[in-house]
Design brief:
Layout: E1 23-28, H1 34-43, E2 47-50, H2 51-59, H3 62-72, H4 85-92, H5 103-129, E3 135-138, H6 142-145, E4 153-158, H7 161-172, H8 176-184, H9 189-195, E5 198-201, H10 206-224, E6 256-257
Length: 271
Amino acid sequence: MKHNKPCKNSSAEAASPQPTMPVIGLAGGIGSGKTLVAEKLGQMGAAVIDVDRLAKQLRDLPQTRRALGQSLGEKIFTQDGQIDEKALSELVFAPAEHQKNTPLARLNAIVHPLVVAKCRQLIDQYRRLGGPKALILDAPLLFEAGLESCCDAVIFVASRPRTRSQRVQDQRGWTESDWARREKTQIPLDKKLEMSDYIVDNNSSKTDLRCHLQRLLSRILGKTSSIQRSVEPCEFPTKHKDGSPGNVENNGAKVRRIPKMHETQEKDGGL
């Protein structure tokens, strides 16, 4: 996918054809293992921005709470004026008769612009200071929030639906219906896959995952150090029998490059 780049420094990076530190966004379904991938990439020398934690910090600011109270009502607060997580979740993930102007849409309309602005600020700070090999955006709603505009590359983390559902039940205490209902509020996985640049299959061991992430990170770093990017011959990822995307060769852990039509043309100084 051709990502916009509003997050680059206007001065230092204008003189350079490529950013020295690529920003890599992670996408995928709920429970796919994006945070595990971010953790592995962090161990390889990348810095990681936990966008979910950042979003909650911004949501809990007094001015944001006031805006949310006006939009969603006082029922989302505890008696001491803090966000009631349970009440908020029940409200925004309840079945909605209309898809437009839902409580979830109103919540996102308030919080997402704050998240994007803060991520841009952090990206600029990291690029000025230097140090990490890459900067990872571990975001549960990368495309929904518009954070792909800050990315030089997006990795889609693929995992089987049954595995993802079991993960959230074990780790978050959700029911399977909780997982399915929340997943329906997000952009469909096939669309996220189409909008991503790379895919990594998280259906095998952590050792296999780390091995292939090392190769993928090296590939991305190599591309961001080149003025032009050539297209490597590759195939679209196959699908598992249950419909989840990914390559089933090599125990389902092989990284594939997703070809895009626009990549047949020369780049104008960026990914």
